[in-house]
Amino acid sequence: MMFENFGNYLVHMGEFEWGWHDMMGFGYFGIVGAIFMLLFWVAIIVAVVWFIKWIIEQSSSGTTKTSKNRALEILDEKYARGEIDDEEYERRKRKLLEG
């Protein structure tokens, strides 16, 4: 009985009204709410980190694809100008497409 109102506080409820309420008006649900808030922010931080990682991976793979496409274009241009023969063209193209 000594701690019956432990955690209760006298709060202003309205004009000329005062009453006893649990902390933040939620009682023990305030603790559960704090846990959910913590989980919410952890989820937000994880999502932001994952998104940044995804963006970096997309930009690096996009650069690789662009480099490979440009290399194939140069190879096609050399072949069209007659600088390399059929065998050399096929060998270089195969090597570019593999790696």
Helix coverage percent of residues?
A: 55-70%
> Biggest sheet, strands in spatial order?
1-2
Structural class, by secondary structure, is: alpha+beta
SSE succession: EEHH
Cα distance, first to last residue? Answer: 77 Å
Radius of gyration, in angstroms, nearest whole number: 34 Å
Arithmetic mean pLDDT: 77
Largest sheet: 2 strands, antiparallel
What does this structure look like?
This protein has helices at 29-81, 86-98, and strands at residues 8-14, 17-22. It has 99 residues and is α+β, with helices and mostly antiparallel strands. The protein starts with 7 loop residues before the first strand and ends with a helix. A two-stranded antiparallel ribbon has the order 1-2.
Map the helices and strands.
Elements: E1 8-14, E2 17-22, H1 29-81, H2 86-98
Antiparallel strand pairs: 1-2
Main traits of this protein?
disordered N terminus; single chain; 99 residues; 2 helices
Provide a short characterization of the protein structure.
The chain has two helices and two strands. It has 99 residues and is of the alpha+beta class. The radius of gyration is 34 Å and the shape is rod-shaped.
